[in-house]
Amino acid sequence: MPMSPEHVGQLLKAKKLLEHPGLTAKMANAIGKPIEMGIQLLPKNWSRIVNDATKKALEKSLAAAVRTFRAGGHAKSKDMWHKIAATATGAGGGAFGLPALVIELPVSTTIMLRSIADIARSEGEDLHEAEPQLACLEVFALGGRASKDDAAESGYFAVRAALARAVSEAAEFIAERGVVKEGAPAIVRLISLIATRFGVNVSEKAALQAVPAIGAVGGALINLAFIDHFQNMARGHFTVRRLERIYGSDVVRSEYQLLP
Prior knowledge:
Oligomer: single chain
Number of domains: 1
Shape: globular
């Protein structure tokens, strides 16, 4: 079944969101400082700290979200409410500088995951099911490259393909247990794969928060850009998934690749 012109238009909007995220520029423009300035100020062991903090933040946010996910629906998502919550969290982190990131990141990540889930519901996802729950977590891997990625490996469908097996195994585990068990191999593997991409964005966020006198206002603006980015990724991702439920994944992917 060919896609209707209306749905092709929706897919085009989704592709523009997914393939042209621009998070680095948004965060840097928010405070008027280049990320390179902050990178020079990061301690030598910061990459390990960011990696550990990213994995813990994803694991804690997933565990909290799985306990509270609700059934699907089509009500409009409350994007602005979640932006306000994330901005307030960023203000607190910015006021205390770079060391506060380890404390702030799990909170802001959980807020962002709740916002992503809200968008998923608005696009008709049934969040009682494990696979749509993990599709929410998958959003954190979108729009961010792993260190070894080239352009072909960082595209939307390439990232989904790279995560597909890990998502399937984790979904099976959650469906059987009904909970996210810390240290479970299926969950650890998925978290690690997502963290390789989400961690790049977190590192850039950390670099900006390392700039002297960033303050509460700067921290708030960085988090606003951060959540806006992942809300856009979520909107694009769940638009594609909604269209896949109508036309099938092959049709949607073929049409996606033809779009400019």
